Amino acid sequence: MSEVDPILTRRDAGGIATLTLNRPAARNALSVALMTELEKALAAIAADASVKVVVLASAGPAFCAGHDLKEMRALTGRDEVAAVFALCSRVMTAVVRLPQPVIAKVHAMATAAGCQLVASCDLAYASTDAKFAAPGVNIGLFCSTPMVALSRAVGRKQAMEMLLSGVPVDAATAERWGLVNRVVPAEALDGAVAEMAGLIAAKSPYTLKVGKEAFYRQLEMGLDDAYAHASQVMTENMLAMDAAEGIDAFLEKRQPVWRGC
Question: In what helix (H) or strand (E) does residue 132 lie, and over which residues does it extend?
Fold first, then answer.
């Protein structure tokens, strides 16, 4: 990569926006600059009605090595350190709150904040060579912010095993634990992600938006409140034009034409 290459790229095709982390020499470590660009890109996509699905990918020999430790060690004072973690938290939250579904396409290593990024995505597909780790404990820095996403993606015992040991888990284990949806050979990863992204992109964007938002909100509620909220969301969804169109298309045995509302 030359000095003029962007550290984050975006490619749009067929309603699918692919964001690619592009710091291969640094194993796509999340520098302040990269996180800032990612935050900007997510904000732009959130306002872009042409985008139905987002794929988060990376260039080079690793998916993401977590925070840029050289950059972190150069920080001076509490405020500078806190600002970096606040930025990272905003990026992860933006992934979750993005109206469009986000699919992580993972190869090789996803460690610390890189593993956090995978756990924050709605779906994750990984190649068989992928590994996942929360290794901060090995360098005296517990992965406390990665644990927020990790503990919401896998069981408590599995999350604590990764956090306390720092030992990487392989792709098959990550799939078994629920950190990733599917593991495929490296040569099949692009195709598997493209197939799922295309499948989702064909759905009503309005329905995807309200459904994703409701999913994460109800997870934070008690059972009664969750059902009350979901019932309210489903009522509004039922009265939407896309629901009427979808039901009519199903009954008439034709393809629906979505209006996004």
Answer: strand 131-133
